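Private note to self, pasted from the team thread so I don't lose it. C-alpha cells:
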C-alpha cells in the first residue's frame, strides 16, 4: 500500500513537471556525460518470461518507468513507439518498466490495446532502488552500448528533442564501432564532466 501512495505522489509531481509550459526545444547536438553504470536486473515481462538487463548488451536502451494510470506516461508512449520503429535497426531498444500495483493483467491489456511495440516489464522495488529511486513517473534512463547511464529524464520532453538525445548516443556508439574497426576512424568524443 505504501508503494501505491508513493507512486501516486510521484505521478502528481511528474504531471506538474511534464505539463509545465516550455518552448520549442532545439535538437540536442552535444555529447552526454556518463552519469553512472547501469544496474543489472532481472524482471518478468507481461507474458511471464524472465528478462535480464544482460539480454540487451551492446544495445542503446531507453528504460522508462511508467504506469497505466499516469497521464504524462501515456503521453510519451506514441513517441517511444516511433523511436522503436525508427532506430531498432541501429540497435535501440525501448523497455517499459511498469510500476502498476494493479498487476500484470492490467498492464498486458493496456500494452496490447496501445500497440506498444517494445518489451513491457513489471518493475519491482529492487529495480527501482537499483536505478537510484524514482521520485516521479515517468522517469526515463538512456543507457549506451557500454552499459552506462547517459541521461535521466523526469517527466516528459518534446518528442523531437528526445529523439535527438537518443540519436546522439546512437551516433556516438556508431563512432565507437567505426573506431574499433579502423584505427584511422574518428574517435568518440570524451564525456563532458
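Design output:
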Amino acid at each position: 500500500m505504501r508503494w501505491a501512495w508513493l507512486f501516486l505522489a510521484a505521478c502528481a509531481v511528474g504531471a506538474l513537471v511534464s505539463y509545465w509550459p516550455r518552448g520549442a526545444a532545439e535538437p540536442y547536438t552535444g555529447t552526454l556525460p556518463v552519469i553512472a553504470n547501469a544496474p543489472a536486473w532481472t524482471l518478468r515481462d507481461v507474458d511471464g518470461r524472465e528478462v535480464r538487463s544482460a539480454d540487451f548488451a551492446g544495445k542503446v536502451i531507453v528504460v522508462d518507468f511508467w504506469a497505466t494510470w499516469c497521464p504524462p506516461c501515456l503521453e510519451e508512449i506514441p513517441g517511444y513507439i516511433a523511436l522503436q520503429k525508427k532506430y531498432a535497426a541501429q540497435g535501440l531498444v525501448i523497455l517499459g518498466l511498469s510500476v502498476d500495483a494493479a498487476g500484470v493483467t492490467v498492464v498486458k491489456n493496456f500494452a496490447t490495446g496501445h500497440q506498444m511495440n517494445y518489451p513491457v516489464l513489471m518493475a519491482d522495488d529492487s529495480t527501482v532502488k537499483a536505478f537510484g529511486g524514482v521520485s516521479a513517473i515517468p522517469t526515463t534512463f538512456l543507457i549506451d552500448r557500454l552499459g552506462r547511464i547517459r541521461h535521466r529524464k523526469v517527466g516528459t520532453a518534446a518528442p523531437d528533442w528526445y529523439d535527438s538525445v537518443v540519436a546522439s548516443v546512437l551516433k556516438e556508439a556508431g563512432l565507437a564501432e567505426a573506431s574499433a574497426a579502423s584505427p584511422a576512424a574518428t574517435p568518440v568524443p570524451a564525456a563532458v564532466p
